[in-house]
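Let us practice reading a record.
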Amino acid sequence: MNKSIQTEYLRETITLAKQIDPRLVRDNPRVGAILINSLGEIVGKGCHEKWGGAHAEVNAINDAIQRGHHPCDCTLYVSLEPCSHTGKTPPCTSLILEKGITKVVFASADPNPKVSGMEVLKNAGVDVSYILLEEALDLNKRFFINHLFKRPLVTVKVAVTKNGLMADASGNSKWITGTESRKYVHEVLRENVDGILSTSKTILKDNATLNIRTAQKIQELNTVVLDKNLALLSNTHLIIHQDRVHSKLILVSSKESHQLPHHIEVVKGIYTENEVNLSALLQNLYANYTINSLLVEAGPTLCKSLLNAGLVDELVVFTSQKVLPANEQYAGVNPKAYSNLQLTQTLTFENDICNCYSNNTWKELLKK
């Protein structure tokens, strides 16, 4: 079949997958699948709708059967390579072979080392084609970052003044941006991550809450704090010590601590003298706390350290019309200093401009 036609079918699977709220399937990927008969008609479609539920291939095959079509007469198109291992559900490759499907086309390879769907199907005599589509990679950026690097997808959010400062000379940074910008931070940025990273200096200065506050509710969020000397434990009046039922306050320190409250944990072994091993921290959060996506809200030192280490996948810069007296200590992040960042979106909130940047160098690992 003509490759351009196959590409259009694959784009249809991506469109299906995009209909699913990523929060419903975390930490799984969004996936869409369709079955095409010999006349080129879509006779079955499906997507992965919720975590632990049936995969897209299963739903598409079942949809075709319910419509009276036999899957063995069809070609299966999927936005992601079919799984070949048992997780919450059986392998999709087993169902594909059971139903006699002889041709499969997919748009992105699964980096999970447990998955070898293409190999399994080919070894069973199935005609398998891999047509890489950029849209399929963008669809599941978090999932790919997780499996490629064994760490969360990292988004750094900063707010700067018109003259490029994140705070005044005393470190005061509250309300650089307006209410609509702050609303976006809560409803979009914080709402869609598993945790938030900051420093004890930022929290002590601002008495930061670091939860999710919307018009409908106040919601907990796993909070990770670089706190070498466990300063937060001796400042119990801080709002950050709110009662936590579904989240943790994770303090990254070089000190021992005993008899901690149930909601507080201390992570050691991340500091080397005064330096934080940021890569080790991220891998620890992914492996031990199931933090698959992390938002960073901190001062310029931590933000720039992550950027310099190449550990930032998305950078969100809010620029207000306010001006502060110049100072070097709190000079903001300059996206132009990082060649791996590309501007992907510009938003406007009242008088604030929000520029969103993406680091897409990870894609090269999936194109080989």
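A brief commentary: The chain is about 30% helix and 25% strand.
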